[in-house]
C-alpha cells in the first residue's frame, strides 16, 4: 500500500517558528481561517489527518466558533482525523472521550510554557501580598493620605497551597523556595515519593484550604475539577488568604468567589482565567479593589511562545513519523489508533505506547 502524505490543519501557531520547523517535513500544512465561510473550513478539516486545535479564546470572537473545537460533532465529521493537539497544557478544548472512542490520539503541550505561567502566578502572589496594584491605583487617583492604609504582607514563612502539582505547580514551588514557604499540595495523582522529592507535603483539599495563605490553582479543567471551588471551599479559607488561579475559569464558581471577596471571607484574588473569555467589562470581579486580573496571558511570553511552537511542531513530526507523541493524553487509544493510522496513511506505527501493543 502506498504511503499517503499526511495533512495537518492548524488555526494559528504561538510562534511562526513552528511553520519553519515543519517546512522540511513530509507533511502538508494548511491554516484554518475562522473568518472564512464554514464550507471552506469543513473542507479543510474533513481532509485532515491532524488538527492543532484552536483555543477557546481564538474562537470566541466568531459566531459558531465553538464548532472548531475538537468536540463530538467535529470528531464524527472528520473521519480521516488521527490526532488532535492543544496549544498549551490545557486540553479542555478537546473531547478526550469522543476522540478515544474514535481512535484519535489526544496530545497537549505541557511543559514548554510552565516557566511563564509559574512566574505569572508568583507575580500575582507578590502583587496581592504587597498590595502593589492597590497602591498604584491609589497613587493615580488622588491624594494618598495615610500610607499605612496600604500596608501589605510578606511571602516569607507563609504557607503555599498548590492544587495540581504538574509542570506549572512544580516550577512555582521551586520559584518560592527563597521565601522559605511551607508548601502543601492537593493532587490525587501525586505519590508520596514525588511529593518528598519536590519538598512538599500531600494533603486533602480541606486541610490545604484551612492552612494556606496562598491557594494557587494550576490543575487542568476536567470532569473532576469543574466546580472544584465554590462557596464551601472559599468559606474554608483564612480571611487573610489569597485565591490565585492560572487554570481554567470553570474550576471555580465566579459568583461564589465574588461573594467571598465582598464578605471578606478571603483577602483577595489573582485571576488569569474566567468563565467567559475575554471577560466582559461589567464582570463584577473586575470592579473589586482586592482583585488583580489578566486576560489569560500568564503563558504568553516571547520565550514561551517560541518554546511551545517548537515543541508543537516536533510533536507533529513524531506523530506522522509513526512515533509515540511525547505528551499523549490517552495512551489507551494506541491499538485502535495504530489500526486507523495504517488504514488511512498506509504505514503502521512501529512504536509502543505506555506498554500497549501496537
Describe this structure in words.
- Belongs to the D-isomer specific 2-hydroxyacid dehydrogenase family.
- Pfam families: 2-Hacid_dh, 2-Hacid_dh_C.
- Keywords: Amino-acid biosynthesis, NAD, Oxidoreductase.
- It is built from 14 helices and twelve strands.
- By secondary structure, it is of the alpha/beta class.
- The chain has a seven-stranded parallel sheet, sandwiched between helices.
- Strand 4, helix 5 and strand 5 form a beta-alpha-beta unit.
- Helix 6 crosses helix 8.
- It is elongated and about 80 Å long.
- The chain starts with 6 loop residues before the first strand and ends in a 13-residue tail after the last helix.
Write a brief caption for the model:
It is built from 14 helices and twelve strands. By secondary structure, the chain is an alpha/beta fold. The two termini are 19 Å apart.
Give structural attributes:
358 residues; alpha/beta; 5-stranded parallel beta sheet; 12% strand
Fold blueprint:
Elements: E1 7-10, H1 17-22, E2 28-31, H2 38-46, E3 50-52, H3 56-59, H4 72-77, E4 83-85, H5 96-102, E5 105-107, H6 114-130, H7 132-141, E6 159-163, H8 167-175, E7 182-186, H9 192-198, E8 201-202, H10 205-211, E9 214-217, H11 231-236, E10 242-245, H12 254-263, E11 268-271, E12 291-293, H13 302-320, H14 334-345
Parallel strand pairs: 1-2, 1-3, 3-4, 4-5, 6-7, 6-9, 7-8, 9-10, 10-11, 11-12
Helix pairs in contact: 6-8
Order of helices and strands: EHEHEHHEHEHHEHEHEHEHEHEEHH
Shape: elongated
Gyration radius from CA atoms, angstroms = 22 Å
Number-wise, the strands total 12
Low-confidence stretches: none
Content-based structural category: alpha/beta
Strand order of the largest sheet: 8-7-6-9-10-11-12
- How many distinct helices? 14
**Proportion in β-strands:** 5-15%
Oligomerization: single chain
Distance between the termini: 19 Å
The percent of residues in helical segments reads 25-40%
- How confident overall, as mean pLDDT? 93
Amino acid at each position: 500500500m502506498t504511503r499517503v502524505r499526511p495533512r495537518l490543519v492548524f488555526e494559528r501557531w504561538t510562534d511562526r517558528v513552528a511553520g519553519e520547523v515543519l517546512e522540511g517535513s513530509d507533511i502538508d500544512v494548511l491554516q484554518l481561517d475562522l473568518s472564512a465561510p464554514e464550507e471552506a473550513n469543513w473542507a479543510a478539516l474533513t481532509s485532515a489527518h491532524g488538527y492543532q486545535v484552536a483555543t477557546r479564546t481564538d474562537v470566541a470572537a466568531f459566531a459558531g466558533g465553538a464548532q472548531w473545537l475538537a468536540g463530538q460533532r467535529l470528531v464524527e465529521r472528520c473521519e480521516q482525523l488521527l490526532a488532535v493537539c492543544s496549544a498549551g497544557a490545557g486540553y479542555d478544548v478537546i473531547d478526550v472521550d469522543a476522540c478515544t472512542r474514535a481512535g484519535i490520539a489526544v496530545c497537549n503541550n505541557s511543559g514548554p510554557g510552565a516557566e511563564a505561567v509559574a512566574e505569572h502566578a508568583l507575580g500575582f502572589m507578590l502583587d496581592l501580598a504587597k498590595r502593589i496594584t492597590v497602591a498604584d491605583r491609589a497613587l493615580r487617583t488622588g491624594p494618598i493620605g495615610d500610607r499605612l492604609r496600604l500596608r501589605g504582607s510578606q511571602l516569607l514563612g507563609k504557607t503555599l497551597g498548590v492544587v495540581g502539582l504538574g509542570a506549572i505547580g512544580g516550577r512555582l514551588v521551586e520559584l518560592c523556595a527563597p521565601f522559605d514557604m511551607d508548601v502543601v499540595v492537593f493532587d490525587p495523582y501525586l505519590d508520596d515519593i514525588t511529593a518528598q522529592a519536590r519538598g512538599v507535603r500531600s494533603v486533602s483539599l480541606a486541610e490545604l484550604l484551612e492552612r494556606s495563605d496562598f491557594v494557587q490553582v494550576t490543575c487542568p479543567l476536567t470532569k473532576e475539577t469543574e466546580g472544584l471551588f465554590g462557596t464551601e471551599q472559599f468559606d474554608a479559607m483564612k480571611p487573610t488568604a489569597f485565591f490565585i488561579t492560572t487554570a481554567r475559569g470553570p474550576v471555580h464558581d465566579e459568583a461564589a468567589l465574588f461573594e467571598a471577596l465582598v464578605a471578606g471571607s478571603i483577602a483577595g484574588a489573582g485571576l488569569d482565567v474566567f468563565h467567559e473569555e475575554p471577560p466582559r467589562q461589567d464582570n463584577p470581579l473586575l470592579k473589586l479593589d482586592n482583585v488583580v486580573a489578566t486576560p489569560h496571558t500568564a503563558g504568553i511570553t516571547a520565550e514561551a511562545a517560541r518554546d511551545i511552537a517548537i515543541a508543537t511542531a516536533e510533536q507533529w513530526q513524531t506523530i506522522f513519523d509513526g512515533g509515540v507523541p511525547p505528551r499523549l493524553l490517552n495512551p489507551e487509544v494506541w491499538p485502535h489508533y495504530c489500526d486507523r493510522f495504517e488504514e488511512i496513511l498506509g504505514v503502521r506505527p512501529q512504536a509502543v505506547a505506555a506498554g500497549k501493543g501496537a
